[in-house]
């Protein structure tokens, strides 16, 4: 049986930290793994300016969701317009994700369940019961 490709995959654009970010995220989530890593070749060097053999993309999985991290350069930055929501069962789980994801992040952007991690990616750490309220 052929592996089915996830219909929609989130692509995260980093300057040059794609592999570091993928390793960071997979170290936090229990059901996670790093997948295929691709490298820049000589093709398109005049456009992307990346060193041949350096990491271009890293595929990784968190809790059954596939992501791609791309080393695309400094042209684009993350904003709060997009965030990932983590639904937590209890205070212990809230504290765990908050502590891990906020480490090294912008302390000014850590308020009321929202945080920015060390790569500038926004997360919402919320109790499952919040959606019922």
Notes on the protein architecture:
The protein is globular and about 50 Å long. The protein contains three helices and seven strands, in the order βαβαβββαββ. The N and C termini lie far apart (43 Å). The strands form two sheets. It has a four-stranded mixed β-sheet, with helices on one face. The chain has a three-stranded mixed β-sheet with strand order 5-7-6, with helices on one face. The chain has 133 residues and is α/β, with parallel strands linked by helices. 20% of the residues lie in helices and 32% in strands.
Short synopsis of the structure:
With 133 residues, this protein is an alpha/beta fold. The protein is built from three helices and seven strands; from the N terminus they run βαβαβββαββ. A hairpin with a 2-residue loop joins strand 3 and strand 4 (65-71).
In this structure, how is the largest beta sheet organized? 4 strands, mixed
Oligomer: single chain
Instruction: State the order of secondary-structure elements, H for helix, E for strand.
Output: EHEHEEEHEE
Taking all Cα atoms into account, the compactness measure Rg is: 16 Å
What class would the helix/strand composition place it in?
alpha/beta
Instruction: Write down the overall geometry.
Output: globular
């Amino acid at each position: 049986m052929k592996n089915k490709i996830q219909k929609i995959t989130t692509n995260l654009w980093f300057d040059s930290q794609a592999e570091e970010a993928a390793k960071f995220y997979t170290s936090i989530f229990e059901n996670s793994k790093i997948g295929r890593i691709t490298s820049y070749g000589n093709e398109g060097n005049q456009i992307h300016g990346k060193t041949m053999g350096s990491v271009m993309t890293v595929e990784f999985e968190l809790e059954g969701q596939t992501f791609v991290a791309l080393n695309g350069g400094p042209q684009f930055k993350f904003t709060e317009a997009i965030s990932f929501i983590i639904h937590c069962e209890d205070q212990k789980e809230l504290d765990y994700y908050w502590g891990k994801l906020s480490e090294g992040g912008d302390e000014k952007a850590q308020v009321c369940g929202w945080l920015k991690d060390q790569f500038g990616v926004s997360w919402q750490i919320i109790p499952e019961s919040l959606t019922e309220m």
